[in-house]
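[step 3/7] inverse_fold.run input=structure_tokens len=199
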């Protein structure tokens, strides 16, 4: 029996940081952000839809999608963000479930689905347990601006495009408080895996 865990949080709350820690326990992680990059490569159905909708100005010289350009458009316009979601999400879900099923068939004890929009997209039926990586908003804002070089306005546009992380925490089976050090988060995760008898 494989336990499927949904790992989520909000932008820059530390999902990738925590998801890397699962490696230490040999637990496979399927990353929706990574899949969302694969499914918009030239030749994919979503690529054609995106170029048709947003125009060639979102393309780089090598014809791949300029993610900074597309991000600036969709995080400033809720309807456009929803439009992009409708083009990208079906293919991401299909690939994610394929990969999850491979892990289940191989007899993994646990598989983690790292899905930023797990609650917003109502995907909790894909998983047995949910874990939210939580940070206070001012920590999130600072880490986001520092990591990606966004202005405060750009960072807030991205934060406000998602459900507040405090609301996600209230919905979760478990919360990892990532306000402190990465080591402190690792210890919380280890204790959680022990309490769920995964390790
Ligand atoms: C808008 C895009 C081009 C920006 O690309 P960029 O490389 O700058 O960001 P990246 O994809 O690494 O996402 C970073 C974070 O932004 C947040 N985010 C991404 N897309 C969305 C979205 N549509 N709505 C809300 N938050 C989002 C997530 O927290 C994600 O972890 C890209 O995020 C995208 O194609 N988004 C649509 C697909 C999607 O929803 N991906 C997220 C989960 S599948
Ligand atoms: N406990 C921590 N202490 C200090 N910095 C941290 C901590 N956790 C994460 N960070 C840093 O904060 C930034 C955001 O973390 P991370 O990339 O893991 O977030 P994310 O939730 O995966 O983001 P996204 O939603 O954009 O994919 C990164 O620069 C990361 O190194």
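[step 3/7] decode complete -> sequence:
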């Amino acid at each position: 029996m494989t336990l499927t865990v949904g790992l989520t949080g909000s932008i820059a709350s530390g999902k990738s940081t925590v998801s890397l820690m699962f490696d230490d326990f040999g637990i496979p992680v399927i990353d929706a952000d990574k899949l969302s990059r694969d499914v918009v490569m030239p030749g994919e159905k979503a690529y054609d839809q995106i170029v048709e909708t947003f125009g060639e100005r979102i393309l780089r010289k090598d014809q791949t999608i300029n993610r900074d350009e597309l991000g600036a458009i969709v995080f400033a316009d809720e309807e456009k963000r929803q439009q992009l979601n409708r083009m990208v999400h079906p293919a991401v879900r299909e690939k994610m479930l394929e990969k999850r099923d491979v892990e289940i068939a191989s007899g993994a004890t646990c598989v983690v689905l790292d899905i930023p929009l797990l609650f917003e997209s109502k995907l909790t039926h894909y998983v047995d347990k949910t874990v939210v990586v939580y940070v206070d908003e001012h920590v999130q804002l600072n880490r986001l601006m520092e990591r990606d070089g966004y202005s405060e306005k750009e960072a807030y546009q991205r934060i406000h495009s998602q459900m507040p992380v405090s609301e996600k925490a209230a919905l979760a089976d478990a919360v990892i408080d990532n306000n402190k050090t990465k080591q402190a988060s690792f210890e919380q995760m280890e204790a959680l895996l022990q309490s769920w008898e995964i390790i």
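[step 4/7] annotate
DSSP finds nine helices and five strands in the chain.
The pocket of dephospho coenzyme A (ligand 1) is lined by residues 11, 32-33, 36, 67, 70-71, 74, 81, 84-85, 88, 92, 116-117, 161-162 (CB under 6 Å).
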